[in-house]
Amino acid sequence: MRTTFILSALLLCGCTVSRQAANPSAPSQLSVFDEALANLKYVNAIRQAERDLPGDTMVKKPFPANLTRERREYQVATNILAELEPRLKQMSVTRLVQSLKVEGGPSPQASASWGGVADFVYVGGYALIKKEIQARPANELRVLPGLADDSVWLYTGPQGPPVTLADFVQREVYGK
Known about the structure:
Elements: H1 2-13, H2 17-22, H3 32-38, H4 40-49, E1 58-59, E2 65-66, H5 67-90, H6 93-98, E3 102-103, H7 116-134, H8 144-147, E4 153-154, E5 163-164, H9 165-173
Antiparallel strand pairs: 1-2, 3-4, 4-5
Helix pairs in contact: 4-5, 5-7
């Protein structure tokens, strides 16, 4: 129930019409990964993975964590990403860029962290999208400079570096 509520709130509150209207090429807040996380097919698996169980292995250093739970969450995320990977191959470069998860910015106050399966899906999805775009022929990459935007921040994980959409295009894809 908690997971369903969180996913519903994420989907309802995470969408920003103003950003989309101002920049139609900016990544959509409702990404292919958001859709998968909200899919009833995965909700029960996510719910089961994201709970603490009596036999779980807990650690206190370097920070408190439930290692067994994290392994369960990672496995569910891996299954979701494996199912989405063929779908990414069918998407245009523009749609791939629009599927990147957006966050508020690089400051700790604006940074988002969804935790659990969602974090693993978004970070893994970022890597899959990057890999898929890099594998595309040069003629498909011509749209990328028009999509670069320094005002759009991408989610790279709770400990990931701050990356704008312009950084992604210039450094992550082109390696400049």
